[in-house]
Amino acid sequence: MNIMHKESIQYWHNPALSGGELTRANFKQFEFDRHVHLDYHIGVVSSGCQQYTHRGSAYHLGPGLISTLNPDETHNGQSYTSEGYQVHVMSVPLHYVSQISQEMSQAEGFFHTPLIDDTHLYQAFLKLHMMLTQHQSNLSSLQLETSMMAFTTELFLRHGNVPEQTADNNNALSQSQIKEVMAMFHDDPGQEFLLETLANTVGLSKFQFLRRFKQSIGMTPHAYLKRVRLEYAKKALIKGGNVADIAHRVGFFDQSHLNKAFKQAYLITPANFQRRVV
After folding, report:
1. Residue partners of 41: CB distance under 8 A and separation at least 6
2. pLDDT of residue 15
3. Angle CA(222)–CA(185)–CA(157) in degrees, nearest 5?
4. Burial class (CB in 10 A: 0-12, 13-18, 19+), 157
5. Are 144 and 192 in contact (CB under 8 A)?
6. What b-and-e string marks burial along 28-54, b requiring 16 or more CB atoms within 10 Å of the CB?
7. Once rounded to an integer, what is the mean pLDDT over residues 125-129?
8. Which residues contact 40 (CB under 8 A, 6 or more apart)?
9. Structural domain boundaries in the chain
10. 198 DSSP 8-state letter
11. How far apart are CA 16 and CA 149, in angstroms?
C-alpha cells in the first residue's frame, strides 16, 4: 500500500477548468466534519480507503470507485483504516455544469448517487487530474479543454440526470463545417488551436462542437490534429529535414514530444524512420 504517513494536501488551479479547484491529499488521522460545497465535487482514492456519510448513509471510497457530490449536499470524511488514504479531488463550478446541462436540454445537472463503480471513468479521472495538475508545457489548451469536457459530459451521461437520447439531437457536423475545420488544421498544423476558436468558426458552442466533431470524425479534435501533425512530420522526414525543426514546424513542443507521439503511433522513432526511408 503506497500511502504517505505524513498528512498533506496540495491545491492547483488550471485555466482549462475556469473557477475550479484540484487537490491531492494524504490523510491518516484528519477527519472532515460535516460540511457542504458550493460546487460539484468529484473524487477518487488511489490507495487506502475513505469512509464518509452522505444523507444518513455510510459509504466506503476505495480504489476503482468515484465519489460524486452535488452542491449543498452534507457529508463528512475520514480514513477507514489506520494506514490512511490518498485522495484526488476536482471541484467543477456550477456554470460549467450548467452549460453542459442546458445544451443537453436539462434544467440542471445532478448526480444520482454519491458513489460510482465505473473502472473506465475512474482511470479517465486519474489521467485527467494528472494532466490538469502537472502543468506540462507540451499539453495544449485544446487537449486539456477537450479532455475536461469529454470526461465531465460522459460522467453526467452515465451517472447523472442527462439521458443520452436528449443530448444534442443534431449530433453531426455538416460537410461544409467539416471542410472548414479541416482546412484550418491542414493549412497550418503547427498553430496553437483553441476549442473556442474552432467552435466559433462553425457557429457552435464548445460543447456542441466537441460532440458533433467526434460524432462526425470518430475522434476528438485534439486526437485528429495530433494524427495530422504526425502525418505531416512523416512527409517532412522523408524529405530529409532536421527532426527538431520538423517537430516545431508541425506543432510539437520539442523533439522529445514528437519522439513519444511518433513511436506510439508508428512503433518507431522519427530518427529511425528517417534513416530507413531516406
Report:
1. 67, 68, 69, 89, 90, 91, 92
2. 85
3. 30
4. middle
5. no
6. beeeeeeeebebbbbbbbbbbbbbbeb
7. 96
8. 68, 69, 70, 71, 91, 92, 93, 94, 97, 109, 111
9. 8-161, 175-277
10. H
11. 9
Return phi, psi of residue 105, to 5°.
65, 35
> d(Cα 25, Cα 274) in Å, to the nearest integer?
45
CATH code 3.40.309.10 for 8-161:
no
pLDDT in tens, 68-120: 999 988 899 999 999 999 999 999 998 888 887 776 655 567 898 999 999 99
pLDDT digits (tens, 9 = 90+) for 194-229: 999 999 999 998 888 988 998 888 888 998 999 999
3-state secondary structure 108-166: CCCECCCEEECHHHHHHHHHHHHHHHHCCCCCCHHHHHHHHHHHHHHHHHHHECCCHHH
The predicted structure's pLDDT at residue 162: 58
CATH code of 175-277, in short, is 1.10.10.60
Q: What is the pLDDT of residue 74?
A: 87
Cell output for 90: 476536482
Bridge partner list, 271 = none
According to DSSP, the β-strands at 75-79 and 50-54 are antiparallel
Cβ atoms of 262 and 270 closer than 8 Å = yes
